[in-house]
Amino acid sequence: MTTPRMITGTITTVITITTVITITTVITITTVITITTTNTATTITSTTTPMLMTTSEPAPAGTGCGTNADEAAALYRLMTWLSPAFPVGAFSYSSGIEWAVEAGDIVDASSLRDWLAAMLTEGPGFCDGVFLAQTHHATSAKDEVGLREIAELAAAFVPSRERQLETTTQGRAFIDIARSAWACDDLDKMVAACGGVTVYPIAVGLVSAAHAIPVGPTMHAFLHALVSNWISAGARLVPLGQTDSQRILAAIEPDVAATAKRALEASLDDLGSATFRADLAGLRHETQYTRLFRS
Predict the structure, then answer these.
(1) Residue 230: is it exposed, middle or buried by C-beta count within 10 angstroms (0-12/13-18/19+)?
(2) Is pLDDT above 50 for 25?
(3) Which residue would you say has higher pLDDT here, 268 or 46?
(4) Contact by Cβ (8 Å): 208, 105
(5) C-alpha–C-alpha distance, residues 121 and 113, integer Å
(6) Nearest residue to 70 via CA among 226, 217, 264
(7) Pair 285, 163: CB distance under 8 Å
(8) Three-state secondary structure string covering the chain
(9) Which residues 6+ apart lie within 8 Å of 271 measured at CB?
(10) 193 and which of 17, 144, 208, 220 could share a cystine (Cβ 3.0–4.6 Å)?
(11) Phi then psi dihedrals of residue 254, to 5 deg
């Protein structure tokens, strides 16, 4: 007689299912199934691990792209105030570039880029940035005495009569238009503290501080607007096409960022200009025979 033999086998199967529900949701299901087989019975044991679900939290309602209401309002105003469309008459001035083209210092996109980079980093661009930052600090602190001293120094720092006309006309227009469209309780008082003469960077620093717009974004927007206007004047004078103008704006981007950083960290003791040729251009433009621009 043959004795029956019992055959016992164990089969272990691991099944992993990964299902992507959305870009930010991943569900992982891990199932372990153990099957034990004998000659008389089959037992199935199933073990399932809990699902792991990862989701990203939605942004708070009304914030839109991570920007809160105050930041959105500040950005909106900066984009408006420092846009070429804001009516301060910037398109009428070349800051001496017209004479530089006439004299042959600027003849193409490359020479225009070099000229503007020097004006920005070592000349009026840096100095205006320092005046803007110091004005913003004084206005925010409601330091009327300090604000008056900064405004007087900025007005005295302009090297020529036409540049004085350029910056004071734009400064006055900037304040008048911003005040008429965006009411601000402290603005009139701080403007009066300046003593009547308000050059353009002083006006931008004062108005932005009165509206509680941070000095960092204001500085970058101001320098971008300044460089853009210089490029626009050069493009009309050389002349240059739109593509070359944008290439210059792109190439000078690191200089704008570096100048903004320096100006934000500087004090009034750090003021100084080394762009003698550009200052000379502003002076000689006053007697230039044919002129398209007012400076």
Answers:
(1) buried
(2) no
(3) 268
(4) no
(5) 12
(6) 217
(7) no
(8) CCCCCCCCEEEEEEEEEEEEEECCEEEEEEEEEEEEECCCCEEEEEEECCCEEECCCCCCCCCCCCCCHHHHHHHHHHHHHCCCCCCCCHHHCCCCHHHHHHHCCCCCHHHHHHHHHHHHHHCHHHHHHHHHHHHHHHHHCCCHHHHHHHHHHHHHCCCCHHHHHHHHHHHHHHHHHHHHHCCCCCHHHHHHHCCCCCCHHHHHHHHHHHCCCCHHHHHHHHHHHHHHHHHHHHHHHCCCCHHHHHHHHHHCHHHHHHHHHHHHHCCHHHCCCCCHHHHHHHHHHHHCCCCCCCC
(9) 127, 130, 157
(10) 144
(11) -60, -35
Instruction: Please state, rounded to an integer, the average pLDDT across all residues of the chain.
Output: 84
Q: What is the pLDDT of residues 200-231, one digit of tens each?
A: 999 999 999 999 999 999 999 999 999 999 99
pLDDT band at 66 (very low <50, low <70, confident <90, very high): low
CB-based contact 294:282 (threshold 8 Å): no
* In the predicted structure, residue 59 carries a pLDDT above the cut 60: no
81: its two tokens: 């105030």
The residue type of 165 is L
pLDDT digit string (tens) for 121-144? 999 999 999 999 999 999 999 999
Domains of the chain in sequence order: 9-54 (no CATH), 69-287 (1.10.4190.10)
> Using CA atoms, how far apart are residues 59 and 56, in angstroms rounded to an integer?
9
